[in-house]
C-alpha cells in the first residue's frame, strides 16, 4: 500500500523545524530525519528530539518535568497512559507565536544532550 501524501500543513511544519535546527545547531550536531511513532522525526545526535505529525509538533523534554509541563495549555502527552514521560504533542495553539515556537524548539534541544538514546533492536536471525 502506498504511503499517504503529507499534508501541506505538515510540510510547512517540517520545513520550519528544519530551519530552526539549522539555525540553532549549524554543523555542531548530526540531524537525521526518519519516520517514528507515525510522524516525521528529527533525531539529533542519534536521539529523538522533535517530530511532526499533521499540524502537531512532537517535543522531547526532561521526564522529571513531565507532570508540570503536562498542565500547559495546547499540549497533550504522547502516551496518555503515562508510558512515555517527557514526550508531548504541541498543538498549533501552543506554538502560534514566535516566542512559543522558540520555547519548544529550545527546550527540546536543551534536553537532548542529557537524553538517553534508545538502543537499536537487533533483528532475530531467520534460520
Descriptive terms for the model:
Aspartate Aminotransferase, domain 1; six-stranded antiparallel beta sheet; alpha+beta; 6 strands; 127 residues; 29% helix
Short summary:
The protein has three helices and six strands. By secondary structure, the protein is of the alpha+beta class.
CATH architecture: Alpha-Beta Complex
Task: Output the CATH class name.
Answer: Alpha Beta
Shape annotation: globular
Q: CATH topology, anyone? A: Aspartate Aminotransferase, domain 1
Helix content: 25-40%
Q: Mind telling me the C-alpha Rg? A: 15 Å
Give the percentage of residues in beta strands. 15-25%
Spatial separation of the terminal alpha carbons: 28 Å
Contiguous low-pLDDT stretches (5 residues minimum) are: none
Characterise the protein shown here.
This protein has 127 residues and is of the alpha+beta class. It has one domain (8-111): Aspartate Aminotransferase, domain 1. It has three helices and six strands. It has helices at 8-25, 66-70, 98-111, and strands spanning 31-36, 39-44, 47-53, 56-60, 75-77, 87-90. A six-stranded antiparallel beta sheet has the order 1-2-3-4-6-5. Strand 3 (47-53) and strand 4 form a beta hairpin. It is globular and about 50 Å long. The model has no long low-confidence stretch (mean pLDDT 89).
Helix and strand layout, with pairings?
Blueprint: H1 8-25, E1 31-36, E2 39-44, E3 47-53, E4 56-60, H2 66-70, E5 75-77, E6 87-90, H3 98-111
Antiparallel strand pairs: 1-2, 2-3, 3-4, 4-6, 5-6
Amino acid at each position: 500500500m502506498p504511503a499517504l501524501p503529507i499534508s501541506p500543513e505538515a510540510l510547512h511544519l517540517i520545513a520550519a523545524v528544519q530551519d530552526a535546527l539549522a539555525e540553532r545547531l549549524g554543523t555542531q550536531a548530526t540531524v537525521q530525519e526518519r519516520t517514528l511513532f507515525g510522524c516525521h522525526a528529527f533525531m539529533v545526535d542519534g536521539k529523538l528530539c522533535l517530530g511532526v505529525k499533521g499540524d502537531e509538533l512532537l517535543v522531547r523534554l526532561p521526564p522529571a518535568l513531565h507532570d508540570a509541563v503536562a498542565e500547559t495549555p495546547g499540549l497533550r502527552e504522547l502516551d496518555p497512559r503515562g508510558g512515555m514521560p517527557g514526550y508531548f504533542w504541541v498543538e498549533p495553539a501552543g506554538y502560534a507565536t514566535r516566542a512559543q515556537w522558540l520555547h519548544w524548539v529550545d527546550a527540546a534541544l536543551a534536553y537532548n544532550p542529557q537524553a538517553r538514546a534508545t538502543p537499536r533492536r537487533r533483528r532475530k536471525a531467520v534460520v
